Automatic annotation (TrEMBL):
<dbReference type="InterPro" id="IPR011992">
    <property type="entry name" value="EF-hand-dom_pair"/>
</dbReference>
<keyword id="KW-0479">Metal-binding</keyword>
<feature type="binding site">
    <location>
        <position position="58"/>
    </location>
    <ligand>
        <name>Ca(2+) 1</name>
    </ligand>
</feature>
<dbReference type="Pfam" id="PF13499">
    <property type="entry name" value="EF-hand_7"/>
</dbReference>
<feature type="binding site">
    <location>
        <position position="93"/>
    </location>
    <ligand>
        <name>Ca(2+) 2</name>
    </ligand>
</feature>
<dbReference type="GO" id="GO:0005737">
    <property type="term" value="C:cytoplasm"/>
</dbReference>
<feature type="binding site">
    <location>
        <position position="56"/>
    </location>
    <ligand>
        <name>Ca(2+) 1</name>
    </ligand>
</feature>
<dbReference type="InterPro" id="IPR002048">
    <property type="entry name" value="EF_hand_dom"/>
</dbReference>
<dbReference type="GO" id="GO:0005509">
    <property type="term" value="F:calcium ion binding"/>
</dbReference>
<comment type="function">
    <text>In muscle, parvalbumin is thought to be involved in relaxation after contraction. It binds two calcium ions.</text>
</comment>
<keyword id="KW-0106">Calcium</keyword>
<feature type="binding site">
    <location>
        <position position="95"/>
    </location>
    <ligand>
        <name>Ca(2+) 2</name>
    </ligand>
</feature>
<feature type="binding site">
    <location>
        <position position="91"/>
    </location>
    <ligand>
        <name>Ca(2+) 2</name>
    </ligand>
</feature>
<feature type="binding site">
    <location>
        <position position="54"/>
    </location>
    <ligand>
        <name>Ca(2+) 1</name>
    </ligand>
</feature>
<feature type="binding site">
    <location>
        <position position="97"/>
    </location>
    <ligand>
        <name>Ca(2+) 2</name>
    </ligand>
</feature>
<feature type="binding site">
    <location>
        <position position="52"/>
    </location>
    <ligand>
        <name>Ca(2+) 1</name>
    </ligand>
</feature>
<dbReference type="InterPro" id="IPR018247">
    <property type="entry name" value="EF_Hand_1_Ca_BS"/>
</dbReference>
Length: 109
């Protein structure tokens, strides 16, 4: 499955363009611009499955750093500060990773 099976290529491009500069990534803004906020629970779970590169059932910090590259191979990696802030927002149980339920809550926040 590809991101474009659920999200429009145009929305993905617009969302990535909005955070090209280092330290400009904001997950709430990105989820809204990419069209993820309005998707069903099942669609959000499918996106989570794409983001969970090692299929562990969680998005770990190294996967989170490469978050944007899941949407486009030419996108930049998140900075250390962006990755830590994104993890802190999503990891509500403090285990150092984001599970599918935490990801759902983050998208809908």
């Amino acid at each position: 499955m590809a991101m474009t099976d659920i999200l429009s290529a145009k929305d993905i491009e617009a969302a990535l363009t909005s955070c090209q500069a280092a330290d400009s990534f904001n997950y709430k803004s990105f989820f809204s611009k990419v069209g993820l906020k309005g998707k069903s629970t099942d669609q959000v779970k499918k996106i989570f499955g794409i983001l969970d590169q090692d299929k562990s059932g969680f998005i770990e910090e190294d996967e989170l750093q490469l978050f944007l590259q899941n949407f486009s191979s030419t996108a930049r990696a998140l900075t250390a500060a962006e990755t830590k802030a994104f993890m802190a927002a999503g990891d509500t149980d403090g285990d150092g990773k984001i599970g599918v339920d935490e990801f759902q809550a983050l998208v809908k926040a």
